[in-house]
Design a protein that fits this description.
The complex is a heterodimer of chains A (739) and B (153).
Chain A lengths: L21 H6 L14 E7 L5 E7 L1 H4 L4 E5 L9 E2 L6 E2 L5 E2 L5 E7 L2 H10 L1 E6 L6 H6 L3 E9 L8 E9 L11 E6 L5 E5 L4 H12 L6 E4 L16 H11 L3 E4 L2 H7 L6 E9 L5 E11 L7 H10 L10 E8 L14 H19 L3 H8 L20 H9 L29 E12 L9 E9 L2 E6 L8 H13 L4 E5 L19 H18 L6 E3 L2 E4 L2 E5 H4 L5 E8 L18 E13 L4 E12 L6 H20 L5 E2 L2 E2 L18 E6 L16 H4 L1 H13 L5 E2 L3 H5 L2
Parallel strand pairs in A: 1-14, 10-31, 12-13, 16-17, 20-21, 27-30
Antiparallel strand pairs in A: 1-7, 2-6, 2-8, 3-7, 4-5, 9-17, 10-15, 11-12, 11-14, 15-16, 18-26, 19-20, 19-25, 22-23, 23-24, 26-27, 28-29
Helix pairs in contact in A: 5-6, 8-9, 9-10, 9-17, 12-13, 15-17
Chain B lengths: L2 E5 L2 E5 L7 H8 L18 E4 L2 E4 L12 E3 L12 H8 L9 H14 L5 H7 L11 H13 L2
Parallel strand pairs in B: 1-5
Antiparallel strand pairs in B: 1-2, 3-4, 3-5
Classes of the chains: A alpha+beta (739), B alpha+beta (153).
Chain lengths: 739, 153
Amino acid sequence: MTTRTDSRVANGVGESVARPDGVPKVTGNFAYASDLVADRMLWGATLRSPHARARLVTLDTSPALAMAGVRAVLSQEDVPGALTFGQEHQDQPVFCDGEARFWGEAVAVVAADDPETARKAIDAIVIEWEPLDPLVDPESAEEQGSVFREMKIRRGDPDAEGEIVIEGYYETASQDQAPLGPEAGIAIPDGEGGLDLHVTTQWVHVDHRQIVACLGVPDDMVRCHPVGMGGAFGAREDISLHIHIALLAQRTGLPVKMVYDRSESFVGHVKRHPSRMWYRHEAATDGTLIKVSARLLLDGGAYAHTSSAVLANAAFFTVGPYRCDNVFVDAAVVKTNNPPCGAMRGFGAVQTCFAYESQMDRLAETVGMSPLELRRHNALVAGDPLNTSGQIIPGSLPTLEVIDALDSIPMPDPLADDDPLHMPGGTGLTTPFSAVRRGVGYAVGLKNVAFSEAFDDFAEARVVLTSSGAEVHTAAMEVGQGLVTLCQQIVRTVLETENVAVIWNDTSSIGSAGSTSASRQTQMTGGAVHAAAVGLRDEILSDHAGDELRGDGVYRNGDLVASIAQVCSNGPVDHWVRFRHPPTEEPDENGQGNVHAGFAVAAHRAVVDVDPELGLVRVVRVDTAQDVGKALNPQALIGQIEGGIMQGVGLAVMEELVIDDGIIKNPTFTDYLLPTFLDAPPVEARIIEEPDSWGPFGAKGAGEPPTISSTPAVVAAIRAATGKALHRAPVRPEDIIGL
Amino acid sequence: MSITCSINGESRTSSAAGFESLLRVLRDDLNLPGSKNACEQGECGSCTVLLNGALVCSCLVMIGDCEGTEITTVEGLADGDMLHSVQTAMVAEGGVQCGFCTPGIVVTGAHLLEHNPNPSEDEIREALSGNLCRCTGYGRIIEAFEKLSGSNA
């Protein structure tokens, strides 16, 4: 009889386990959507509107269709099913319906034998437009009632007053997620009238619902498959080319591949909502918040996408991680002829955090407190009512611990040398070294985890035990964040088996895992995998009361009593779970209710050097402390934190979609600047582990908090260095030098 | 037109017209999709390969200019199952997330270490500054190269 003494398996929860797809990714063997090919494959291309708003006068596709090598040209009249799509509201035409409502709106698609022919065919389509005046100013849109959603929050006493009043106006620009993998996919006919789709996405099941509706086919005729993804960050939460290639494959009976180039990617996915925010904080002279009133205005662009949920997040996180009993918010997301907006990491909480943290800094200065002292004094913690919705904060919310941990990180050395590599602007710096100014800034941010407002949020997963190990089956999207590793680690820890494979299921094989967004998959798919593994273990042990399951079998008092082969003698043991987080409610007409399922908090401290003559900024470092519940994989967690911070730094100092009369002026990586190795500040992160009430092992989602408060921390540091008010992110050189 | 060059030590011939980019030929004609197309403009470095030992963005090189050249792509760095030290370090240190930038970073990093076995943090940052990564914030990648730099001391 085998006797074992060790009680745990290697590479389980809490360890920095390397990702299983790491080796294929470093050798070039990992298959991304843009790498997929099929026999007799055609290439698709898209004709887009060159106007932000225009009437389609003439569309003649016959010259394109007459070209050698062109197999199909489709426009609105060729859509067999629903003419519009959308995740929440089906308001976006599959193809232009007679009026283009944003620059880059799809008008027609082509399938041809090769990409060059497809592009030439697009050019051959005869099209005539009558340009119309675009509605591009969000305030005009609000006045005209062109809104996707309006929300009010009315909590507490409208007559409450504080002796200290801080009023401010803030703006954030539109930001692109810029995942390095472009939108790409292939639709493959199955020979029986059905289709298999492999397209970049964050949620195959919600894609599936929209695709079958537009194709006009039963659900079981289309299968959407998880696919290798080059990042996402919100850009892939909504449909891009899915329906177009499905229609082309349906029409031609041949596989159709489409890949957007970078400029097309900039118009082919939704972006972060630009915002305008008017704030009024009232406080007692000791810094205690008495009342916060705000008006929030987000520009949703031409179509709804997830705008209404983004607005709710902005509204519920108007005040941030601070106690306040009197909160009054009027929020609207408007419909314009600007590029459509939707999800991007932080999802509405980014915009308001920039505003409320700017306000908190001004309040701190006015009452003579340090930035962190004011935040500690007002800190919102578990058990408090959320300042906006009034719901009691469930689980953990270690706001004070996060602030204290951030404060304990040593400050960097003062600028010691004039090495141009360490100067703002690098070797381009012409300002004398002695004129460079250093500043330090702080910010704290709050975000909900998972879906809110009574959404039936669930994730399905199956865990299967075979004599050679365990399998996880899920349709959750691994976009790069490392969910694949967490699934393995969770199963290893529960089943004490080392050999765990993750099998990505298509939409016909398993139910939805929900979106890879809202920082939710660690808790939702992680929760489902955990519950399935525990259920599987309990099922096996139901015949072995008091025994223990380990990797090689069932043990009693340290002795093997049934080998895994015996446990699986009737075939693999299988456990399937549909996991839900605690239910949430619709907010009432005053925005009150148990709206969110959980919360996470993070704090950032930024140090910057500024060249005040040229308005150049070098972000010297960004340190952070983050509430994560439990670090399931510390190395992957640090990767999320560092990556998230860099997107926040981008929005603070360089990333802006420049939109003029509805037209994006910088849709390339030459003109839309992303932080590089030389721009990226070092990060020191302190992890705060206070278990949450419903994540696996107490874990919380960790993807979004790093992006939320890093932007205001950097801008606060620039304010400290320059003395400028800086009410807008990103901060441009002209904002610093005062042009 | 027929263009013959040595790719990862193997003689390969492409019947490309000549004006296509090296990247297009690698990916679409020669079944070497490891080099990635993320901007096709020379800004992101995801398509970086070695051309006669020099780092180039393969999206900016015309295949017509590659006759008789020696090219190394990400697929050619490992020696059979033995990963290049840069590949091992990138996986071990968490330098890989979505991985779309990774082929370019691995090729650039291998080139860096070949010419400077013990780079400082500044030298690592400068050498890799033509490679964009949107996932990692670069921290774990720098860590991977610092570990390699130490191991070559």
